[in-house]
Amino acid sequence: MRLLITGSSGFVGQNLCNFLTYHSLIVHPIFLRNLTWKDNLVGDAIIHLAGKAHDTKNMGDASEYFKINTELTKELFDAFLESEIKDFIYFSSVKAVADVVHDVLLEDVRPNPKTPYGQSKLKAEEYILSKQIPGGKRVFIIRPCMIHGPGNKGNLNLLYNVVKKRVPYPLGAFHNERSFLGIDNLNFMIKEILQNKNIKSGVYNFSDDDFLSTNEVVQIIASVLNQKNINIAIPKLIINGIAKIGDFTKLPLNSNAIQKLTENYRVSNQRIKSAIGIEKLPTSTVEGLEKTIKSFGLGK
Predict the structure, then answer these.
(1) Number of domains in the chain
(2) What's the pLDDT tens digit per position in 193-221?
(3) Nearest to 300 by CA among 167, 153, 116, 196
(4) Which of 1, 24, 121, 142 is the most buried (most CB within 10 A)?
């Protein structure tokens, strides 16, 4: 099986390419900034990972999101429709449909993205879903939640450094539940889609099986570091007051930071598991987080 992959140099792309190659699939990177990318569009599947990533500080040019995440995706998808390639897998995001999740996020939620990143991803989804798919082809829209794994230096790494320095975690009074996606489970689900032709086209959330609170993540980090968990339950009123001060100063604890650390964001993965025919993913949420956290200590 010959696979064409955009975004192969990114964190997800590198891991996925290595995983698929290990399982005897032929991976061929394509670069959409190269004007000749359409000249050799031959293979069994396209996995579209390339895009402009979410800027949590909202400092990016909004038009760039639509130029890269929407227009390039539309151009690639049109080329797929005209080709002999059978499968198209587009990596969108849960942020294409919801910035806030009050219950559990399902695939049929009414989209309401608030950021240019999410809106640009949604526009690409809408374009893909508006097209008539020729017989014999499959099209998948994947909505992953927060992806982590060895080599990824995201928010988990920041939390790791706080715990490692034995700085007390002050938000113990807040309890939330969040979904995570370990890179091993992501790789597994993509391989299943590629190899199991009985899996039908559609929109699929990607997440691990269990929800964890930020307090539990802090506990896991402390356990990996073999340290005592220093978790302080400062009253919420005090924390929110400090956060408001942080909104107008350079304090790291501001309203945005508090929201990210304490909000609920639960994502259902039941649809993709049912399509694959499994009850559980191969790697548990805790196992995946432990693997990622251990990699921070190795400098990887």
Answers:
(1) 1
(2) 999 999 999 999 999 999 999 999 999 99
(3) 153
(4) 121
Residue type, 39: D
**Cα dist from 234 to 170, 171, 237, 238, 246, whole Å:** 6, 6, 8, 7, 16
DSSP tag of 36: T
Q: Which CATH number is 22's domain given?
A: 3.40.50.720
User: Closest by alpha carbon to 138, among 199, 62, 208?
Assistant: 199
Model confidence over 251-275: pLDDT tens digits? 777 887 788 888 999 999 999 999 9
Within the chain, residue ranges assigned H as helices are 11-22, 62-65, 72-82, 116-130, 155-164, 183-195, 214-224, 236-247, 255-262, 270-276, 285-297
Element (H, E) at 176: none
Instruction: Provide the terminal-to-terminal Cα distance of the chain, rounded to the nearest Å.
Output: 31
- Give the span between the Cα atoms of 151 and 148, in whole angstroms: 8
Structural domain contains residue 9: yes
**60: domain range?**
2-144
- Kindly report, residue by residue over 105-158, the tens digit of the pLDDT: 999 999 999 999 999 999 999 999 999 999 999 999 999 999 999 988 778 888
37-to-74, 76, 86, 121 alpha-carbon distances in Å: 14, 10, 18, 22
3-state secondary structure of 297: helix
DSSP 91: E
Pair of tokens at residue 244: 């408001």
- Alpha-carbon span 176 to 173, nearest angstrom: 10
Residue 228 counted as domain residue: no
Look up the pTM and report it. Answer: 0.92
The residue length of the chain stands at 300
Is residue 201 included in any domain, yes or no? no
| 160, 221 contact by CB (below 8 A) | yes
Query: What element of type H or E holds 278?
Result: none
In a domain, 117, yes or no: yes
